[in-house]
Amino acid sequence: MGGGGPWRAPGTWRFLLVLARAVVMPVARLRVTGDVPQALRDGPVIFAANHIGPFDPVAISAACRVARLAPRLMATGGLFRAPVVGSVMRAAGHIRINRRQADVGNAVDVVADAVAVGSHVLGYPEGRITLDPGMWPERGKTGLARIALRTGAPVVPVAQWGAHEVAAWGGFGPTMRTLGRSLLHRPVVRVHFGAPVDLSDLDVATPGAAQRATDRIIDAITADLVRLRVEEPRLPRYVDPVRPLSMQRRHRPAR
After folding, report:
1. For all residues of the chain together, what is the average pLDDT?
2. 167 vs 100, residue with greater confidence
3. What is the per-residue pLDDT across 44-80, written as a single tens digit (0 to 9) for each?
4. Would the pLDDT of 6 be above 90?
């Protein structure tokens, strides 16, 4: 891996982290737990978060501000193609992931290069907002795990819960309705930075290693999420009526 210390966040991204914290304050009560030791902060880190709704990036960015972190976000290429948002994403140093396109495989190389120069990166191993009826993490994609095995960078699970109550799935109308309700009730949004996932016994050249690493990452996120939603052990208290449901990618924790 490359040296030179951790990646330095551009001023644009530092400003957006402050802005995210300001945006969250009126619509939610943010609770950030866990810790990222200094030994990890001084080198490359891969943060792997569960994905429960469209407000997740804002909530996690605000949590990163509280935790004094500024990871580069792995974001869909559509955001980078947007006229204004794309310029901001590039200025902030985030990493473009072209899902469902021929060059999507290059994303692993791009992120691995970023990690090799000391970057902190944050992505969603599920690859989409979960469609699980209980809003538990789905079976993960192997991209983040392959990057971790290739570079040796530690993977820190990030479990989060409550952002789904702030902004609904179904476009502008439902989002505005849930945001309006959030201004009145300010739901609790919890974000927990967990202990690094042990992948030390896995070799990237071994067949199936990336999937086993992915399963461990999802298991770690799920274990931390259990502690965040002790009052909602099976189904969420708030059910978004327009969110589609599917069990096709249900994750089965290792026994």
Report:
1. 91
2. 167
3. 999 999 999 999 999 999 999 999 999 999 988 778 8
4. no
Q: What is the CA radius of gyration of the chain?
A: 17
Q: Among residues 63, 102, 57, 48, which one has the least CA distance to residue 75?
A: 57
Q: State yes or no: pLDDT of 172 exceeds 70.
A: yes
Q: In the structure encoding, which two tokens stand for residue 162, read together?
A: 């409550």
pTM of this prediction exceeds 0.85: yes
Residue showing tokens 């070799």: 203
Pairing outcome for strands 120-123 and 45-49: parallel
Phi, psi dihedrals of residue 73, rounded to the nearest 5°: -85, 135
Answer yes or no: are the C-beta atoms of 34 and 193 closer than 8 Å. yes
What secondary structure does DSSP assign to the chain, as a single string?
---SSSPPPPHHHHHHHHHHHHHHTTT-EEEEEE---HHHHTS-EEEEE---STTHHHHHHHHHHHTT--PEEEEEHHHHHSTTHHHHHHHHT-EEE-TTSTTTTHHHHHHHHHHHTT-EEEE-TTSS----TT-PPBPPPSHHHHHHHHH---EEEEEEESGGGTS-SSSHHHHHHHHHHHHHH--EEEEEE-PPP--TT--TTSTTHHHHHHHHHHHHHHHHHHHHTTT-SSS-SS--TTS----TTB-----
Say what the pLDDT of residue 2 is.
43
